[in-house]
Write a sequence for this structure.
């Protein structure tokens, strides 16, 4: 190998080394963004599961209250039938029982002081479902962002091995796509319907 060829080879190696440093920096930045989107995604997934359980529990409580209310309303209706057939001595006691059942049924329907009437439980359950849907939408965006970052890391790594700098540009585009999906997940999770 001549001195000129050796010099040319050294210049090429120096240029490649500088490019590799830039690609390594791109990979490091992608890894950082991947860690952030994975953390946000895991948090959103946990929130989604938690709110789903909360909504299911509230709907179960709602059903139990509805069944109890139906039983009490039925008892009050039967009491009204019994009232018509009762002798005068028992009518006040039967009427008091009917009134108590009617009050209990009304309390089962709406109990604002405890928040445990069927109306309040349904409202809480719907709110938990909304929060669940919000967290699920965020989760899907963060997952897509993570996928973009992971593919970007692979392509940037392939750039170092192959020397095909077009892969680095595609990796950069995927970085922007991942950042875009992360931003959507954070601030506008329902802009794109992904699930």
């Amino acid at each position: 190998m001549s001195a000129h060829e050796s010099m040319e080879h050294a210049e090429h190696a120096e240029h490649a080394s500088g490019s590799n440093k830039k690609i390594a920096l791109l990979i490091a930045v992608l890894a950082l963004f991947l860690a952030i989107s994975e953390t946000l995604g895991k948090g959103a997934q946990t929130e989604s599961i938690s709110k789903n359980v909360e909504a299911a529990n509230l709907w179960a409580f709602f059903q139990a209250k509805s069944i109890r209310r139906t039983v009490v309303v039925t008892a009050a209706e039967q009491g009204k039938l019994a009232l018509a057939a009762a002798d005068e001595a028992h009518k006040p006691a039967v009427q008091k029982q009917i009134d108590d059942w009617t009050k209990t049924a009304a309390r089962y329907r709406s109990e604002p002081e405890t928040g445990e009437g069927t109306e309040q439980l349904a409202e809480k359950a719907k709110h938990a479902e909304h929060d669940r849907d919000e967290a699920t939408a965020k989760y899907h965006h963060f997952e897509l962002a993570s996928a973009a970052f992971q593919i970007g890391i692979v392509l940037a790594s392939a750039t170092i091995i192959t020397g095909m700098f077009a892969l680095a540009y595609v990796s950069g585009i995927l970085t922007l796509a991942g950042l875009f999906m992360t931003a959507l997940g954070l601030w506008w999770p329902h802009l794109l319907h992904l699930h």
Summary: Residues 137 and 193 are 8 Å apart (CA to CA). Residues 24-187 form one domain.
